[in-house]
Amino acid sequence: MPSSPLLPKLMKAHGVSRRSFMKYCASLTSLMALPPAMAPRVAHALETAPRPSVIWLSFQECTGCTEAITRSSAPSLEELIFDSISLDYHHTLQAASGAAAEHAREEAMREHYGKYLVIVDGSIPLDEPGYSAIAGISNLDMLKETAEGAAAIVSVGTCAAYGGLPQANPNPTGAGAVSDIIKDKPIINVPGCPPIPMVMTAVLAHYLTFGIPDLDELGRPKAFFAESIHDRCYRRPFYDKGLFAEGFDDEGARAGWCLYKLGCKGPTTKSVCATVKWNDGTSFPIEAGHGCLGCTEPDFWDNGGFYKPLSAPAGNYRRVGQAAVIAGVAAGAGGAYLARKGKADALANHETVDAFTLEKEEKES
Amino acid sequence: MQNISKSGADVVQLKEAVANLPTGNALPILAEIHEALGRLVESGTTAVIDLGSIPFTGGDEKRLQEVLGEGEVNAVLNAMGESFVQETEIPGVWRVDHYDQQGETQSRFIEVTFIPDILRTHREDAVRGHEMLAERLNGKTGADKKGG
Questions:
Q1: Taking residues A85-100, what's their average pLDDT?
Q2: Do B122 and A275 touch (CB under 8 A)?
Q3: Whether A312 and A198 share a structural domain
Q4: For residue B104, is pLDDT > 70?
Q5: Which of A62, A266, A316, B19 could bridge A292 with an S-S bond, Cβ 3.0-4.6 Å?
């Protein structure tokens, strides 16, 4: 596989001017929360970065993360950057299947040992590896085998980063995150259900240009996960004035007041949804009139219900989180502790749930 | 129909309400611009301030606009979406707003400089222009072909 820079050739082929590229780099620098003076360095690094080999592994997931990053309505420089990597294995996108596909993965691993980047979406079943397998190889074995020669791993989506929906109570497959299994490689968590496409590309661009970005205690790049959605929400002034919607169709909702009382998780959720937005910058959930679900946070699915205000008593997750903060758990250990506690609780409380039970609970709540 | 128009009026009301609520961040930005302009005059040092890096509402934008005003130069770039480059009434202080192809804001900057870098022709583009002109003079391209 070629490893020479491809971006300049792609830009020329698509008739992208230097001015357009510099404009993109200025916006990318802003998005990565780097000082504006760094824009020329970002441009230079993007142009000269060698084309990395990327192996994309999809485990227990819904393909939403891949859909998000590949589904862009207009040709953009983000796409060109995505095109400029050498995507050597992605079983959803590649034409090859079965043994031929696995051969491509093994060949990429052999040729670029120690240098390739692994992107993972989906969680990994740990109770019984046979719950999810590709070409007869369990997810667990494939992850361990592929991670061995990786330079770094990017866990894309909340499932790969923290277990996500497959790990939700009662966690029938014993789903775990990449970081629960791989301990000896740098792991960048890009959570979200799915993550914002531009954030995924920007993390990739950061890796290409300046290496591993600064990460928070949950392994997320600080540039995109340092502030809560609440901090940047356009409805924040209503919160500050104590003006809340009490129902989805009341006067407050129509006036665009804060959705805190309707269960919005914006105050405890870190992401750039409110500024970068979704669907080519159209809007984000709160702008569409629905509270934030908190999808970039661990255990968001079990976090006390989507329509209960944060001030209402919640499940174990929030209590454990507060205890961890109060105890001053060292950076990085908090996330792992929460993951372990969540899994232990799920296993201890293992209970069967059917649609009838869920419906009953919904009515009672 | 009534519901639709009511909903439309609500959206307008909401947008106006949000647009007029300043965070108070315009004042420190203006002080930073003043200091940067001093450095430009003294030593030629340029500065770029990223307006996306702090909470900045429509009310703050209004305050900034009131103080800086509109200057002599007003350029529109068409480079993968529009960009508006305007010199303010304070010479040396430029407003640079980048939009994508859908018209959504990508980034917003205040540049304190004699000329924003994005306005000048870059060498790589001039090289491409040199080749294009040669092709046109040689009659290789019938219809003029515009680059992206």
A1: 81
A2: no
A3: no
A4: yes
A5: A266
pLDDT at B143 over 70: no
**A217 plus A253 within the same structural domain:** no
**A211 and A341 within one domain:** no
**Partner-chain residue, chosen from B48, B49, B80, that has the shortest CB–CB distance to A16:** B80
pLDDT at A72: 54
The shortest CB-CB distance from A17 to any of B7, B105, B148 is to B148
pLDDT band for A27, please (50, 70, 90 cuts).
Answer: confident
Whether A74 and B101 lie within 8 Å, measured CB to CB: yes
Domain ranges of chain B: 2-137
> B2-137: which CATH architecture?
2-Layer Sandwich (3.30)
CATH number where A250 lies: 4.10.480.10
Residue-number span of the structural domain to which A353 is assigned: 232-364
Nearest to A255 among B10, B80, B83 (CB): B10
Residue A73 lies in a domain: yes
User: For residues A244 and A252, is the Cβ–Cβ distance under 8 A?
Assistant: yes
CB atoms within 10 A of CB A330: 9
pLDDT for B15: 59
The total number of structural domains that make up chain A = 2
| Confidence grade of residue A1 (pLDDT, cut at 50, 70, 90) | very low
Written in H, E and C, the secondary structure of A290-355 is CCCCCCCCCCHHHCCCCCCCCCCCCCHHHHHHHHHHHCCCCCCHHHHHHHHHHHHHHHHCCCCCCH
**What are the tens digits of pLDDT across the range A320-336?**
333 333 333 333 333 34
Which residues fall within 8 angstroms of residue A256, CB to CB, at 6 or more apart? A235, A238, B10, B13, B14, B17, B18
Spatial distance between the Cα atoms of B146 and A11, rounded to a whole number of angstroms: 15
Please report the DSSP string for A254-271 in residue order. HTT-B-GGGT--GGG-B-
> What pLDDT, on the 0 to 100 scale, is given for residue A322?
37
> Does residue A2 form part of some domain?
no
Q: Are residues A175 and A302 in the same domain?
A: no
Q: A133 and A210, same structural domain?
A: yes
Hey, is A150 helix, strand or coil? Answer: strand
Q: What CATH code is carried by the domain that includes residue A39?
A: 3.40.50.700
Query: What was the pLDDT predicted at A321?
Result: 37
Residue A33 vs residue A221, higher pLDDT: A221
pLDDT level of residue A210 (50, 70, 90 thresholds): confident
**Interface contact B125-A232, CB threshold 8 A:** no
Same domain, yes or no, for A324 and A298? yes
Chain A interface with B: residues with Cβ < 8 Å: 12, 14-20, 22-24, 26-27, 30-31, 33, 35-37, 39, 73-74, 76-77, 231-232, 234, 237, 254-256, 275, 277, 280-282
| Higher local confidence (pLDDT), B112 or A93 | B112
For residue A23, tell me if it sits in a domain. yes
Contacting residues for B137 by C-beta, under 8 A, at least 6 apart = none
Inter-chain residue contact B52 with A280, CB threshold 8 Å: no
